[in-house]
Amino acid sequence: MKAVEVKNLYFKYNKEWILENINFILNDKEFLAIIGPNGGGKTTLLKLILGFLKPNKGEIKIYGKFPKQARKIIGYVPQHISFSIDIPITVFDIVLQGRLKKGKFFYSKIDKQKATEVLEKLHIYYLKDKRIKDLSGGERQKVLIARALVSEPKLLIMDEPTSAIDPRGQTEILDLIESLNVTRIVVSHDIKILLRKVDKIAYIHKKAIFHEGPKLNIPKDKHFCEIELINFLKDENCGI
């Protein structure tokens, strides 16, 4: 089943083309990693898939629907949180926000049950009564992922989910993303995401190069720096 289908996509800010002729298909439950330089169009592509922006040319379908029609089945974890961490709100309340819908003002027993289930699944139920400002960067990011998952999305989109997190927290977040049983699109500036079991990779710099995820088979506890990874990928002729 096609989860995301992008055809002949073009987008420009003012007179400058940011994305040109982007084409790809992501199937149900697949994991797409998007890498590339700053300003290359990665976040813009996410905004187009989410329906926040409209393409100048081309078409995007999410499980057969246009992005605005598909928002109910998309979970989104932005690069920057949309609220102040100084607000006295608990982890459980933040996760519950993922159950809010237009015209809905109260949480049901089912909403609270779903929030509990997601927190337990992500092994962070013990944080439920803590305030968001008291969490580490990695814990905070897990909470935001829980908020996205509690809406039971078919597609989960994450923009730089490991930025500003310590190495241990980064590993935990990547372990979590890898384990999820939904279609995933993750933008990352850290090419170590390619050490994960990604199904497809996109290198975005105005245009796009797509290829299958490399079969690295590297132990997670083994040091493997970016230079080694780049050399490996060159040997694999992956196109980056």
List keywords for this structure.
240 residues; 6-stranded mixed β-sheet; 27% helix; globular; 9 strands; 25% strand; alpha/beta; 6 helices; Rossmann fold; 3-stranded antiparallel β-sheet
Characterize the structure shown.
This protein has 240 residues and is α/β, with parallel strands linked by helices. It has a domain at 2-83 and 153-235: Rossmann fold (3-Layer(aba) Sandwich), CATH 3.40.50. 27% of the residues lie in helices and 25% in strands. Strands 5-6-7-3-8-9 form a 6-stranded mixed β-sheet, with helices on both faces. The protein has a 3-stranded antiparallel β-sheet with strand order 2-1-4, covered by helices on one side. Helix 5 links the parallel strand 6 and strand 7. Helix 4 packs parallel to helix 5. The longest helix has 13 residues, at 109-121. The mean pLDDT is 86.
Walk me through the topology.
Layout: E1 2-13, E2 16-27, E3 31-35, H1 42-50, E4 57-62, E5 74-77, H2 91-96, H3 109-121, H4 137-149, E6 155-159, H5 167-179, E7 183-187, E8 200-205, E9 207-212, H6 226-235
Parallel strand pairs: 3-7, 3-8, 5-6, 6-7
Antiparallel strand pairs: 1-2, 1-4, 8-9
Helix pairs in contact: 4-5
Brief overview:
The protein has a domain of 165 residues: Rossmann fold (3-Layer(aba) Sandwich), CATH 3.40.50.300. Helix content is 27%, strand content 25%.
Please compute the radius of gyration using only Cα atoms: 18 Å
Low-confidence stretches: none
CATH architecture of the domain at 2-83 and 153-235: 3-Layer(aba) Sandwich
Order of helices and strands: EEEHEEHHHEHEEEH
- Placed side by side, the strands forming the largest sheet appear as 5-6-7-3-8-9
**CATH homologous superfamily grouping of the domain at 2-83 and 153-235:** P-loop containing nucleotide triphosphate hydrolases
Number of helices: 6
Structural category: alpha/beta
First-residue to last-residue Cα separation = 27 Å
CATH fold node name of the domain at 2-83 and 153-235? Rossmann fold
Shape: globular
- State the CATH class of the domain at 2-83 and 153-235: Alpha Beta
Main sheet record = 6 strands, mixed
Number of distinct beta strands? 9
